[in-house]
Amino acid sequence: MTSKSVAHFHQPNALESSIQVSSCTLAEVFAGEIPIVKGEKTIRGNLRIPVYQRPYLWGTKEIDRLINDIKKHRKTNTSQDYPQYYLGTIILQQSSDGHLNIIDGQQRVITMALIQAENGLPIPDLCITSPISIERIKNNVAYIRQYERDLLSQINPNEINITLVITRREDDAYTFFETQNTGGVRLNGVDIIKAHHLRAIPVQGGRQDTYAHTWEAQRSLPELVVLLLKARRWNLLRWQQVPPEKDPKGIKTAIISDFSEAVKPDGPSVGYLHVISQQNQRFQLPAVPFAIRQPLNSGANFIDYLQAFGQVYHRLFREDSDPDIPDEYYTFRKEVIDVIDGTAFLRDFFQISMLCYVSRFGFEHIWETALWLFRYTYAPRLINKRTVREDSIPSFIRSDHYLIDHILQSFTHEELIEYAKRFSYDVNSENLNGNTVKKRFLNRVAVYFNEFSPGFEGGYDSALLAAIKAITKENSL
Question: Which of 89, 100, 410, 432 is geometrically suited to a Cys-Cys bond with 163, CB 3.0 to 4.6 A?
Answer without folding.
Answer: 89
